C-alpha cells in the first residue's frame, strides 16, 4: 500500500507569527511541496475563532504557483457558507488548478465552544442543524458542478431554475472530516456520521486519534459502506497529524503545547490534555513511526501540520 503524504501550509500561522511566517513564505512552502514530490498541499478554515487567510482565496494563489500537487481543504466549515457561492468559487479554483483539487468539508467541532457558536451567529447559520445543512449543501454543490438546471426544495435550502455554466475541470472529490472518537458520542450519532461519509464523500479525514481510535472509526465507516452496497475501497481514509521534529523530545513537546494554546486560544498544560498527545513530537524517526502506526490502522492519506512559527524550515 502506497502512503500519500501532504503538507498543511497553515494559513493561521501568518496571522499568529507574521514576522516569522509571512504570506510569501506560505506560498514558497507550497512551491516546495510541489517541487519535492509530496502528494498534496492543504489549508484549514475558520472565520473568527481561529483567524486565518481565507481558504479558497489562498489555494487559488497557490494554484498559480504550482503545477502538480493536489490542493485541498482540511476542512472548510461548510454550514458557514452559501452552497451556491461555494460551488462557484471551488469550480473557479479547480479550473485555475487544472483539476487538482479536493474539497474537504466539515460541520465544525463536534462539541461547540463559544467561539464556534459566535462564528455561526456571524454567518447567519444554524448551529443545531449544521449536519443536515451540510448534507443538503453537498447535493447542491455536486449538481451545480454537473451543470444541472437545479430545482431544489430542501428543509434548509430552496433553489429554483438555478444553473451554472462554470464547471470544474472534473467533479472534484469531496472528503468529509469528522472526529467520532471525541466527546463520548452516542453510537447513533457515530453511525449517522459514518453514513454521511458513505453517502456523500470520496474520502474521510480525522485528527487527534490514537491508532486504535482510528481503526475503530474507519471500521465503522467500512461496515456502513458494505451495508449500503458501497465498496469501502472507494473511500479514501485520511488523517491530519500535528507534529514537531526536534531531537530533544522535551523541547518538542513544550513547543507543541505553546503552539496549540496559541492556535486554539486555550490554556492546556500538556498535549495529552489537549488531545494532540497522540501525534508525534520528537525525532524524525518518532514521526515516521507514528505514520506507520496509523497506516497499520488503515490510514492511507496523511496531512502533516507542523507546530511552531518556523513552518518553512
From TrEMBL:
<dbReference type="InterPro" id="IPR050564">
    <property type="entry name" value="F420-G6PD/mer"/>
</dbReference>
<dbReference type="InterPro" id="IPR036661">
    <property type="entry name" value="Luciferase-like_sf"/>
</dbReference>
<dbReference type="Pfam" id="PF00296">
    <property type="entry name" value="Bac_luciferase"/>
</dbReference>
<dbReference type="InterPro" id="IPR011251">
    <property type="entry name" value="Luciferase-like_dom"/>
</dbReference>
<protein>
    <recommendedName>
        <fullName>Luciferase-like domain-containing protein</fullName>
    </recommendedName>
</protein>
<dbReference type="GO" id="GO:0016705">
    <property type="term" value="F:oxidoreductase activity, acting on paired donors, with incorporation or reduction of molecular oxygen"/>
</dbReference>
<feature type="domain" description="Luciferase-like">
    <location>
        <begin position="19"/>
        <end position="273"/>
    </location>
</feature>
<keyword id="KW-0560">Oxidoreductase</keyword>
Amino acid at each position: 500500500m502506497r502512503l500519500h503524504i501532504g503538507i498543511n501550509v497553515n494559513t493561521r500561522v501568518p496571522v499568529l507569527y507574521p514576522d516569522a511566517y509571512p504570506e510569501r513564505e506560505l506560498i514558497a512552502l507550497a512551491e516546495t511541496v510541489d517541487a519535492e514530490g509530496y502528494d498534496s498541499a492543504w489549508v484549514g478554515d475558520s472565520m473568527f475563532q481561529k483567524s486565518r487567510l481565507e481558504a479558497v482565496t489562498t489555494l487559488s494563489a497557490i494554484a498559480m504557483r504550482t503545477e502538480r500537487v493536489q490542493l485541498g481543504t482540511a476542512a472548510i466549515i461548510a454550514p458557514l457558507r452559501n452552497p451556491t457561492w461555494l460551488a462557484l468559487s471551488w469550480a473557479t479554483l479547480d479550473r485555475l488548478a487544472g483539476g487538482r483539487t479536493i474539497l474537504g468539508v466539515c460541520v465544525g467541532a463536534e462539541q461547540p465552544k463559544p467561539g464556534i457558536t459566535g462564528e455561526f451567529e456571524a454567518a447567519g447559520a444554524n448551529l443545531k442543524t449544521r449536519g443536515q445543512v451540510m448534507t443538503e449543501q453537498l447535493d447542491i454543490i455536486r449538481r451545480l458542478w454537473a451543470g444541472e438546471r437545479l430545482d431544489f426544495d430542501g428543509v434548509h435550502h430552496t433553489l429554483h431554475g438555478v444553473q451554472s455554466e462554470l464547471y470544474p475541470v472534473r467533479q472534484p472529490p469531496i472528503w468529509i472530516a469528522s472526529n467520532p472518537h471525541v466527546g463520548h458520542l452516542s453510537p447513533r450519532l457515530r453511525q449517522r456520521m459514518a453514513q454521511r461519509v458513505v453517502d456523500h464523500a470520496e474520502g474521510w479525514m480525522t485528527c487527534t486519534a490514537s491508532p486504535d481510535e482510528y481503526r475503530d472509526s474507519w471500521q465503522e465507516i467500512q461496515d456502513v459502506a458494505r451495508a449500503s452496497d458501497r465498496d469501502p475501497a472507494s473511500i479514501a481514509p485520511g488523517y491530519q497529524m500535528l507534529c514537531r521534529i526536534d531531537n530533544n523530545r522535551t523541547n518538542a513537546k513544550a513547543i507543541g503545547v505553546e503552539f496549540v494554546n496559541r492556535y486554539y486560544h486555550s490554556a492546556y498544560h500538556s498535549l495529552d490534555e489537549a488531545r494532540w498527545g497522540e501525534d508525534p513530537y520528537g525525532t524524525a524517526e518518532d514521526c515516521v513511526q507514528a505514520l506507520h502506526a496509523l497506516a497499520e490502522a488503515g490510514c492511507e492519506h496523511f496531512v502533516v501540520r507542523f507546530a511552531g512559527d518556523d513552518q518553512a524550515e
